[in-house]
Write a structure and sequence with these properties.
Structural class: alpha+beta
Number of helices: 15
Largest sheet: 7 strands, mixed, barrel
Strand content: 5-15%
Number of domains: 2
Helix content: 25-40%
Oligomer: single chain
């Protein structure tokens, strides 16, 4: 009897502990070690628009806007969904996008927030750095978001991302895309280790050609972490293998890279390794094996021009960098220029780029111009003009940069009722023009999947060439393309995403006081003949025809026409968030063929208990901006991995104990 009492008492205690663990602990808000990176759900909540309130001395903010190209850090406080972090660093960011905004009438700059700049131990739920991208050159506001969603669906480590509405000192700045920085935090969260070598190639060596076994010769390889141990990196051995026929599986995650290039090719993302600029990607070396990390997709969906033409149909060599990249300084490539003090120009060189042999970036252009960075006849940014037009952008109607608007307004800034950008001529915006009729250009829709490069050759891109030259690897790459074309890059799937985003974003986009494009232009991307779903429909059909051999696309570095740059599962069935329309949402703003039946059950909407922050747009006076309430956003209770594992282990122990008691009682009889 005594033994039975002991057993039953122990069982009762264990049952009580199990009940407490499952029912009580998840609701106490206790952070365990595995909630270290809870920013993925608490900051980047895809079911709502996160509110970002920046408080900064007004004189510092005005100086930042007036001297945006300096990218000087300023001290500020920031409140995100009601949680305030003090003493953070903030600065403007960008490369070509930054210069373009500087030279326009707009001051809508992308921003970088550094939570731990002044305090190494400070973070926002584990997040150390946040990028606020201004959706430069994308009237749909969706290209980058959808691209990251597809990367996630194909199993690639992808920066966290969601939409954010930004205010500065109580003044609305508008709708931005928040994107997690690729740094030590990202690496630890996605690779369980940040002890390896993170590279952000941009410059000499970013094409991944073998130069020598001396890593110092790869001046543009952009080592971001573990610099003191660079001699232990296997980079040069990896480059030797992919260039000279070595065992590439020893050095690269082949399957991951095949998935990456399949998505990049399907999305016709050419402001990348596959294009003339050979940048906008990360390499992470972990235990001698290299992985690839996607980055910067505001020019996907053919936005960079499938002929390598880049912006405005000009030679992409005449541009240095692109939206959302960092300005190089004093011989530093972008990835080495994180310290704003390093970002001053050198002896009159535009953007502080160090020339090689007298030529900026050492890249020789047609006509003897190097990389378009050497000023000529006083052209802004030192970019080689085309037809006498600054920045190499072909004007329409004879106006420089296509910027001269009706009634003599420059930069296409003609307004209606004092609202900026209200009459922007579609496809004629100097910052890239975003969505234009060229979205459906044949050069993008039928971009080659067998030779998926633009403005260059496969031989000039040895990593991709090494993969596609192997029949086994190519077959797997083609299987991933087929998966994309039949599952994710389909009209229905992309339509579900754009519908969700239209429901979520339209009222914010309407209220955005600094937006580059009109609401009409934004909604064109949602549905219709010139929309992202239509692109997906035609592009996926082309991919399948190319895979079957029905369509053969002839490509070469010079034969492709020099098209100008048009200037997830986010249906959230999985995360169970319920769609809610903003109170002031105007259905008449949606396209005529917008189909609510495409909306999945659940959809994207405001969290219950979301409070004033981050829910659907609230306009108390009927025409104002988002409700600026100061309430703390309520977070839904979540159960972290440690709780699940502990509960599972306890439950298993209880089952074992019950079996033991059962057998013990049987023996007692």
């Amino acid at each position: 009897m005594i033994k039975n009492r002991i057993v039953y008492t122990s069982m009762a205690i264990l049952l009580l502990l199990f009940g407490v663990m499952v029912a009580v602990l998840p609701n106490l808000g206790i952070e365990t070690k595995n909630t270290e990176y809870s920013y993925e759900t608490l900051v980047f909540n895809k079911s709502k628009v996160t509110t970002v309130d920046i408080e900064i001395p007004q004189e510092d903010w005005e100086d930042m806007l007036e001297n945006a190209a300096d990218e000087e850090l300023k001290q500020a406080n920031i409140t995100i969904n009601g949680k305030t972090i003090e003493n953070v660093a903030i600065r403007t960011k960008g490369n070509l996008s930054l210069r373009s905004v500087v030279n326009s009438d707009s001051d809508r700059y992308s921003l970088k927030v550094d939570f731990d700049y002044y305090d190494d131990n400070q973070s926002l739920y584990g997040l150390k750095k946040l990028n606020l991208n201004n959706n430069y050159s994308d009237s749909t506001l969706m290209r980058e978001y959808i691209s990251y969603e597809l990367m996630e669906k194909m199993g690639l480590p992808t920066p966290a991302h969601s939409y954010m509405y930004v205010t500065v000192n109580g003044e609305e700045r508008g709708l931005y895309l928040g994107v997690e920085a690729v740094d030590e935090t990202f690496l630890a969260n996605n690779y369980s280790s940040n002890d390896g070598f993170l590279f952000k190639p941009d410059g000499t060596g970013s094409d991944l050609k073998y130069i020598s076994d001396n890593i110092a010769d790869y001046t543009g390889i952009g080592l971001k972490t573990n610099e003191d141990n660079v001699e232990n990196s296997k980079l040069t051995e990896m480059l030797d293998a992919i260039n000279n026929g070595g065992d590439i599986e020893k050095y690269i995650d082949v399957d991951e890279m095949l998935r990456y290039f399949a998505v990049n090719t399907a999305l016709v993302n050419l402001d990348s390794y596959q294009g003339n600029m050979k940048h906008n990607y990360y390499l992470y070396e972990n235990n001698g094996v290299f992985s690839i990390i996607p980055w910067d997709y505001n020019m996907s969906f053919g936005g960079f021009g499938a002929g390598g033409g880049g912006m405005g149909g000009g030679n992409p060599n005449q541009m240095r960098g692109n939206a959302n990249n960092e300005l190089p300084a004093e011989g530093q490539t972008e990835e080495n220029a994180d310290t704003p003090a390093m970002k001053q120009p050198q002896e009159g060189q535009p953007n502080g780029e160090q020339p090689q042999g007298g030529q900026p970036n050492g890249e020789q252009l047609q006509g003897g111009q190097s990389n378009g960075e050497q000023p000529q006849s006083g052209q802004p940014n030192g970019e080689q003009p085309q037809g006498g037009q600054p920045n190499g952008e072909q004007p329409q109607g004879g106006q420089p940069n296509g910027e001269q608007s009706q009634d003599g307004q420059s930069n296409d800034e003609q307004t209606q009722d004092g609202q900026p950008n209200a009459n922007r001529n579609k496809g004629n915006f100097d910052m890239g023009g975003g969505m234009s009729s060229n979205l459906m250009a044949d050069s993008a829709i039928n971009f080659s999947i067998t030779t998926p490069v633009s403005g260059t050759t496969l031989e000039e891109r040895p990593l991709l060439n090494a993969l596609l030259s192997n029949e086994t690897y190519r077959a797997k790459y083609e299987s991933y393309l087929e998966q994309l074309a039949t599952t994710y890059l389909t009209e229905d799937y992309i339509q579900s995403i754009t519908n969700n985003l239209a429901m979520l974003l339209t009222s914010y986009e309407e209220a955005d006081p600094t937006k580059f494009y009109t609401t009409e232009e934004f909604l064109e991307g949602v549905a219709g003949d010139n929309s992202l779903p239509e692109f997906a429909k035609q592009r996926s059909a082309s991919i399948l025809k190319q895979l079957s051999g029905e369509l053969v696309v002839e490509t070469s570095a010079t034969a492709q026409d020099n098209r100008g740059m048009p200037n997830g599962d986010t249906n959230n069935e999985a995360n169970g968030n319920e769609m809610q329309m903003p109170d002031d949402f105007d259905p008449s703003q949606l396209p005529a063929d917008f189909d609510p039946s495409q909306m999945p059950e659940g959809g994207m909407g405001n969290e219950q208990g979301g409070g004033d922050k981050g829910g659907p747009m609230q306009r108390p006076d009927g025409n104002g901006g988002p409700n600026q309430g100061n309430g703390q956003a309520t977070q839904e209770a979540t159960i972290d991995k440690s709780t699940v594992l502990t509960a599972t282990a306890t439950f298993s122990f209880l089952v074992a104990a019950l079996l033991f008691v059962f057998r013990f009682n049987r023996r007692g009889r």
